[in-house]
Amino acid sequence: MSKRPLLVVLAALAAGCGSGSQQATTTVHVPVSPAPMALTVFRVENGSLHTESVSVPATQAVAHAALGALGLGADVTIDAGTAHVNLHDATEAQVAEIVYTLTQFSSVQRVDVAGRTGLTRADVSAFVPPILVEKPASGATVGETFTVSGTASVFEATLVLEVRRSDTMLSRQTVTASEGAPARGTFSATVHAPAGTVTLAAYSPSAADGSHQHEQDLRLVIKP
What pTM, to 2 d.p., does this model score? Predict the structure, then answer.
């Protein structure tokens, strides 16, 4: 992203006073920092992956910025669809975070990290919860109409999306994933909600009593 200088003109009065005074101007170039950008990272909490929207300084090196947001100051290079992460040691949870975070980018299909090569999302599936909302990420700002998408492994491929504000239900819809448990399918739905801070809940309704199973709650800011 280019930086456009801000021009500030400073006026200085020459020595002396009265009609004979002369005025000089000096142009000072003050660089303007580009606006920060939002990135999605995948974090492991309580053994399961979830998304989080983070704000980072504007950059074209988004893979490196995403790893930095995860607290991993590792260099990364991408070649022929493989992201090579310069990190010698990593826990299994960190590997899952790295693989899911980097493979969200279209230029990355595999990850080499901590002595392991060619890792894909299938290699870290143990950290994927029954319902994983990938877009939008928790903490993201969206419009009043937005798309919710992700993957799920739930009974009869059925899940429910609810938008709530405090104790008020703003919207509710049933969504069918492309496959039901034990397979994992994808899902996508268009959601409408009024402006403000809301909770997006995704869950599988129990066949026995309709109770919420595998619920994922995301905080969103909706702007008109």
Answer: 0.81
Query: What's the CA gap between 192 and 48, in Å, rounded?
Result: 28
Residue spans of the domains in the chain: they are: 37-127, 131-223
CB atoms within 10 A of CB 188: 13
Sheet with 185-192, edge to edge strand ranges: 131-135, 145-152, 185-192
Residue 10's pLDDT band (cuts 50, 70, 90): very low
d(CA 215, CA 124): 21
Q: What is the pLDDT of residues 124-166, one digit of tens each?
A: 999 999 999 999 999 999 999 999 999 999 999 999 999 999 8
Which amino acid appears at position 3 of this protein?
K
What is the rounded CA–CA span in Å between residue 42 and residue 49? Answer: 6
> What average pLDDT score do residues 179-204 get?
97
DSSP state of 123: G
Sequence-separated (6 or more) residues with CB below 8 Å from residue 149? 133, 134, 135, 186, 187, 188, 189
The CATH number of 131-223 is which of 2.60.40.10, 3.30.930.10, 1.10.340.30, 3.40.190.10?
Answer: 2.60.40.10
Contacts of 19 (CB under 8 A, 6+ apart): none
pLDDT of residue 26: 58
